[in-house]
Amino acid sequence: MRDGAGLRVENLAVGYGSDSVLQGVEMEVAPGQFAGLIGPNASGKSTFLKAVSRVLRPRSGRVLAGGKDVWRDLSRLQAARLIAVVPQDFPRDFPFTVEETVLLGRIPFVDRIRGERPPDRARAWQAMEATGTLALRDRLFSELAGGERQRVVLAKALAQSPGLLLLDEPTSHLDINHQVEILDLLKRLSRAGGVTVVVVLHDLNLASIYCDSLHLLAGGQLLAHGTPGSVVTRENVEAAYGGRVIVGRHPVHGCPQVTLVSEEAGDGRDVTLATGAQGTARAWPLPGSFRVHVVAGGGSADALMRNLARHGYPLSAGPLNAGDTDWQTGRALGAELITIPPFSAMDKESVRRAAAMMSEAGAVIVAPVPFGHGNLPVLAAAVETARSGTPVALMDAGQATGTRRDFAQGRATALLAEVTQLGAALLAGPDDALAWVRGLAERRKGIDP
C-alpha cells in the first residue's frame, strides 16, 4: 500500500440540475486517518463521495487529495491511481469471475499493450486474501451472495493500491460478524497500511467504535465534526435525525453508543409531532426542561431512572461513586452526574454541587438507598431542598421509617422523618414516580407563561 493521501474539502457545493444537495461543506481528513461520514438519508453523503471521486463536478469549492485538486490538477487516470471507491451498489449480473473482477482494480496501472503482469495478479491475490475472497476466485460474481459480493468489490478497490479509499455503506449487506471483519480490515489499512479511509456508515454505534473522526451531514451542511465523543451527542443526533435517543458509553471501548427510544413506549401524551417548512421535527413539550434529580446508589434507582428517561425527562444524579450500578445507568441514559472516586465518601464540594442541582431541579426523588455516614450529607441536602419549597419524594414508601436502611445510628431515620413532615411524597415504585413527576410537570406547564 502507498502512503495515505490526506483529504481536504473547501467550501464545497454540489447538486443535481436545479437541486442543491451540499452547500459550504468544509472537511479535512489527515493522511492515514479513518474518518466516518454519517447523517440521515438524503443528507448528501453519497453525493459527497461522488464529488471527491470525480463522478460529480462541484458547483463551487475545491477537493484536494494528497495536496492535489482532483478536478483541476489530476486527470481521470491519475485520480484513479490515487482514489479507490467501493460504491453502495454494484451490478449483480457482472459476467466475470471473482478474480477477473478484482483484477479490474489494476486497470489504472496496466499497460494497454502488454496487459496484466505478474505483479498485478499478485496484488489482486493479496486483496482477495485480505478480504477472505481468495477461495471464491473461480466463481462467477453473479453467483455470489450479497455479503460475498460486497467483499469482492472491496477487494477490487484494494487491488487498486489507493492512497485514499472511499466507501459508501460497505457493511450494508453483511451480517454482524462480517461487518466487524470488514471494519477491522479497514482499520488495519489505515493504521498499518497508511491508507486514508473515508466511509459512509448508517450504524452510528459502529462508526463511533471504529472511526478516528466523524463528520455529521444534515440538511446539506456539515452539522458537526470531530472525535466520536464530540459528534455523537444526544443533541446532535436528535437535531440531525429527528428521533429521540439516549447516548451512553460502550462498556469496553468507552465511545458513544446510541439507543433509540420508541415513541410507542409511552402512553402517547409525551410526544407531539410538529411539521414545518424544514420537514417533520419532534418536540417534547411536556417534560421539556423539567429535570429530576435522583438521590441514588447501589442500583436502587436503575428502574426509576430508566422509566423517567424513557418518557423524556432529563435526569441528574449524585454524588455517585464511579462504577456504581446507578452511576453506570445514569451515564448510559445521558444524565448529568456528580461523580466521586470509587469507595469514597462524599466530600463537601460534591454535596454542595448536589444541593445546587436539587434546588434547580423540578423535583427530587430519594431512591431506597442504604444511608451511612458516607452518604448521609446528600440526604440532609434533600431535606433542605424540601424546606426551600422544591418537591421531594421518597421512593418505596416503606423507607419513610428509615430503620431498614439506616446505618448511621438513627440519623438517617430522623432525616427521613423530617422530610416526610415537610410534605415529601411517598412513592411505591417507578410507575408511581412517573405519575408524580408528570403531574408536577403538567402543573408547572400550566403556571409558566
Task: Walk me through what this model shows.
This protein has 449 residues and is an alpha/beta fold. It folds into 2 domains: 7-239, 3-Layer(aba) Sandwich (Rossmann fold); 292-447, Rossmann fold, CATH 3.40.50. Helices cover 35% and strands 24% of the residues. The chain contains 15 helices and 20 strands. The chain has helices at 45-52, 76-82, 98-103, 118-131, 146-159, 176-191, 204-210, 228-231, 234-241, 302-310, 325-332, 348-360, 376-387, 411-421, 430-447, and strands at 7-16, 19-29, 34-38, 60-65, 68-69, 83-86, 164-168, 196-200, 213-218, 221-226, 245-249, 256-260, 272-276, 279-283, 292-295, 315-321, 336-340, 363-366, 392-395, 425-427. The chain has a 6-stranded mixed beta sheet, with helices on both faces. A 6-stranded parallel beta sheet has the order 17-16-15-18-19-20, with helices on both faces. Helix 13 (376-387) packs parallel to helix 14 (411-421). The longest helix is centred in the C-terminal third of the chain and has 18 residues, at 430-447. Residues 266-288 have low confidence and may be disordered.
CATH-assigned homologous superfamily of the largest domain: P-loop containing nucleotide triphosphate hydrolases
Strand content: 15-25%
Q: CATH top level of the largest domain?
A: Alpha Beta
As residue ranges, the low-confidence spans are 266-288
